[in-house]
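Bumping with the actual sequence this time:
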Amino acid sequence: MHTHHHRPHINLRLERWHRRSIYASLLLLLSSGGVWLIVRYFMRPGSQFGASIHPLEPWAMRFHGGAAMLGLFFLGSLMNAHIRRAIKAGRNLASGLSLLSLLAVLVVSGFGLYYLADEESRNLWSLTHWIIGLAAALVFILHLLIGQRQRG
């Protein structure tokens, strides 16, 4: 009779190319989103008609949109190789599932900003998106640190 007292150790660490691709896409997302935030809220050039749009703002947004497509591609690549196996192994679930939840809100709010937001609702969509985005970056770092500690 086979008992399940001792689970075999499942290596959840990603291959180097995979890990670096995910880090790179997240860095592109965070940096382009960060540039947008800074130019939007702190560098709006004044004109005779009041505040106008900084020339970097639309470029940061385009770059962010492209990075989002890349990020979604790599998120999909984690579904089987990492996420499903981690859930099965019961490892690093609190930060991992928190991160997935935050990413889901980011995907929905990013979609909302692009396709659903109007003048009245845009600020709420935007605020939700960038606050959750910054929170997700912190939870991602936490997820890595916990994962490294669990690995030993």
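The tokens above came from a reply further down the thread. The two ends are 31 Å apart (CA to CA).
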